[in-house]
């Protein structure tokens, strides 16, 4: 989007052509820092309809979870959201933080913490190998379609962290991932949900490509 923005309004005159990429990365870093500070501030209100959405779900007996380890600086931002939701409402919500993720069965399996005391070590190793082999098979199948060479171990740490968090969330609310719905606001969340078969609703926070195309 920034590339389209500067292509449209013009680039800084003093910026060499070969430095556009590094310039964009720098702008994105500063934007992210400012957004993180703003998101965690008391002055930022909740998105309109959030309280009603949560209340409606709870009234229908649908469990709701807030994943505080979902993204970068998620704990800080989520604390602000939880405070704004109010104690009475959050008392009915599952708050999934770092500790909850690590204590979840899937978290223990993937992170390798505390599993030996509750599961046979050999079984765990075999399960890990089977899961890794299956992920590698799927990755290679997709790669063959795209004519790419893929190593599953090259998957981003951020994506794996989100997947572990999503699975931990489904475990705490007592539902299979296929029966949970992620309300996501980022592409990384959407991709992680897609990888594990979790339905996902995207909350737009900026113009879509179709919006931009309509304006050009």
UniProtKB/TrEMBL annotation:
Transmembrane annotation, as ranges: none
GO function term, MF aspect, one: hydrolase activity
InterPro entries associated with the record: CbbY-like, HAD-like_sf, HAD_sf, PGP-like_dom2
Origin superkingdom: Eukaryota
Gene3D superfamilies, sorted: HAD superfamily/HAD-like, Putative phosphatase, domain 2
Protein name according to UniProt: Uncharacterized protein
């Amino acid at each position: 989007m920034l590339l389209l923005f500067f292509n449209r309004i013009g680039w800084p005159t003093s910026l060499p052509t070969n430095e556009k990429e590094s310039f964009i990365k720098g702008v994105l870093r500063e934007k992210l820092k400012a957004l993180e500070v703003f998101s965690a501030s008391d002055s930022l209100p909740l998105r309109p309809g959030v309280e009603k959405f949560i209340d409606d779900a709870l009234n229908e007996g649908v469990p709701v979870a807030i994943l505080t380890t979902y993204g970068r600086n998620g704990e800080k931002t989520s604390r602000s959201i939880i405070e704004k939701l109010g104690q009475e409402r959050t008392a009915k919500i599952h708050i999934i933080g770092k500790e909850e993720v690590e204590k979840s069965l899937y978290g223990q399996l993937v992170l390798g913490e505390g599993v030996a005391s509750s599961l046979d070590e050999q079984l765990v190793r075999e399960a890990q190998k089977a899961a890794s082999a299956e992920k590698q098979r799927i990755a290679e199948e997709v790669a063959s379609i795209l004519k790419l060479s893929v190593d599953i171990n090259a998957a981003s740490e951020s994506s794996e962290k989100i997947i572990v968090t999503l699975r931990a969330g489904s475990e705490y609310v007592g539902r299979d991932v296929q029966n949970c719905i992620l309300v996501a606001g980022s592409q990384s969340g959407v991709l992680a949900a897609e990888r594990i078969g979790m339905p996902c609703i995207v909350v737009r926070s900026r113009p879509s490509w179709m919006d931009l195309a309509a304006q050009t």
